[in-house]
Amino acid sequence: MALLVRHWHTKYRLSLFAEIISTRNLFLRNMLEYYNSGVEMIRRDLLTGHWIPYLEHALNLNPCYNEPTNGGEVAANILQNAATGKVYNSEKYSGARRLRDAIVLGFQLQRSAGRDISIPGWYSHAENELGLRPMMPSGERSELHATSANELDIEDFDILHGDLHGLPDTVTFLKSLASLDFNFSSNEKTEKRHLRERLAAAGLFNWEDVIFVSRAPGRLDVMGGIADYSGSLVLQMPIREACHVAVQRSHPSKQRLWKHALARQHEKGEGFRPVVQIVSFGSELSNRAPTFDMDLADFMDGDGPISYEKAHKYFAQDPSQKWAAYVAGTILVLIRELGVQFIDGISILVSSGVPEGKGVSSSAALEVATMSALAAAHGLNISPRDLALLCQKVENHVVGAPCGVMDQMTSACGESNKLLAMVCQPAEVKEQVNIPAHIRFWGIDSGIRHSIGGADYGSVRVGTFMGRQIIKSTTLTLLYQSSTVASSQDCSNGVIHDELDEYDSGLLEKEATLNYLCNLPPHRYEAIYAKILPEEISGQTFMDTHGSHNDPVTTIDPKRTYAIKAPTAHPIYENFHVKAFAALLSATSTDEQLLSLGELLYQSHYSYSKCGLGSDGTDRLVNLVQQMQHRKRNGSDERKGTLFGAKITGGGSGGTVCVLGRNCIQSSEEIIEIQKQYKTATGHLPFIFEGSSPGAGKFGYLKIKRRIHGR
């Protein structure tokens, strides 16, 4: 059964009611889901009374149904559109798919007491035949075992703590976890590329003991982006795709070890020692090793933990296992920052549905999910904010990627269907901003792999911090000159100034100790500093003149030339743009509001490009959105475009574009049309991100124990 909670708005009231229908009635389920009007409930939660998360989710829905209300008319339109080939969406909500659903519904309506009608065999394979939208990574698929998915139920586990929150990907993960506790051989229908990770995962857990499961989503950068490390206000949306991590701690004598790990212990002759063993599903998608293990003693150097620098070198030795730094690195950070002592062995299974290299923070989701599960397994009470800051240390110091903190904060602190408004100084959550019912955000993947550890991102960050240091040096010079030649005019560094009054001196004193560039208003930047900042400067020249750029996570290459002016100006103006965007979200719903919001997105996008963080793919997608917004329609179609703006996201240089549009069916049709046009032009079919889900803090954790059936 499924609980479908629907709500609708009238001029005077909000009405809420629940309707229980069969989960096999896919026609009705998909219609409700497609129009953002339904929340599906897990049967177990329905029967046990766990309704609150679903009701909370339902209250945050933004229904976008503006079609006829006569059921017969709706069905007729669907059939007519499918018959004439007017199919806009290649997914399960397309006319063709809904036609299949309607046929199945017809079969089901023929059922009578004591007699059932078999569902046609072709129906279960229909989704695979469409092939127009990329499938999710294999780690989130339910076909991990030859056993029917219907036989793998969450009833295989006792949930001792936590709630599923109605999240279907969590149910899928638990099913894949349950499927590991089956005997299977290489002769089964398991692809060779999955076999190694499946075999390793099958020997990972003691099924008699408890397992802790966490979930952390990726994020869509709506506004703020790379200005986070300069202290900007940012607006971030947790996406539907998420990473799940299962953790089990075991006494070293009881931990199930892989053969080579056991042999390593025997070779050392020191008895049982705690080991961390990690399996990552979907490893073949990134050409990385599916497993990693190490003795926890390797994190220690005498009586204390090893340095972050030493850990970074340790994980960088083997490129195919560098990914383990994101996971095992959380253990070292907990040791160094909180003094946690890990005396038990740790088994970790990672299954992420957040695509890598698309600029939606797959790494932050992995770090946050891992640390959340470790904290739960070891009884650590860490607030979501503090956990995010610890995870940033993993990425900055163990992985070696100079990211800001907004990714980890969104994954840890975000709420479904809301924008996390945070001032990154260093990580102060202002509020959870409700997305107005008439507005919707999408992410469109450019297919150009994004890496926050790449040279472009790092060099732009170095240039930004150089610019801040030049501004601070300039203010000190101006203050000195104002105190020594207060009655004269002087020319210094290209700035001609008169005697400074008390007000200007006070501002200069503040700017001389500027910690975050975003605390400098745009008008002050234009009035004084824009004139003296160089377009670029060599690393050696900067160090000779100013010394350090005072960024703890990047270093200056003396032989490299760095852009200065554009990377410095970007966060100053971006902070202003984000504040304006946040204010406009609460304005009256008008076309002018949407146009203004869209314009702010466009300005942010082109500012990225000035910094050198653009790409051909993301520029193409933004141009396609503009064309869709302004295109002239043919014939009697007088509809206006319903997409209003787009921008590159995250660290730039590829990845995903955020698109803003009206929350209606036409917008979805236009997104699909852009997807097809991009594929025609580039050969790459973009992944579309839509929907939202709760952050790790809201999800909490699951404490589960395997039910042993007849064994």
Automatic annotation (TrEMBL):
Recorded GO MF terms: ATP binding; galactokinase activity; L-arabinokinase activity
Gene Ontology biological process terms, A to Z: galactose metabolic process
Q: Where is the GHMP kinase N-terminal domain?
A: 326-414
The domain of life is: Eukaryota
Bilayer-crossing regions: none
Give every Galactokinase N-terminal domain span: 210-249
Tell me which species this is from.
Araucaria cunninghamii
Protein name from the UniProt record: GHMP kinase N-terminal domain-containing protein
The record's keywords, sorted A to Z, are: ATP-binding, Nucleotide-binding
The family database entries (InterPro entries) matched by this protein are listed as: GalKase_N (IPR019539), GHMP_kinase_C_sf (IPR036554), GHMP_kinase_N_dom (IPR006204), Ribosomal_Su5_D2-typ_SF (IPR020568), Ribsml_uS5_D2-typ_fold_subgr (IPR014721)
What Pfam family does this protein match (any one)?
Answer: GHMP_kinases_N
According to the UniProt record, one GO cellular component term is: cytosol
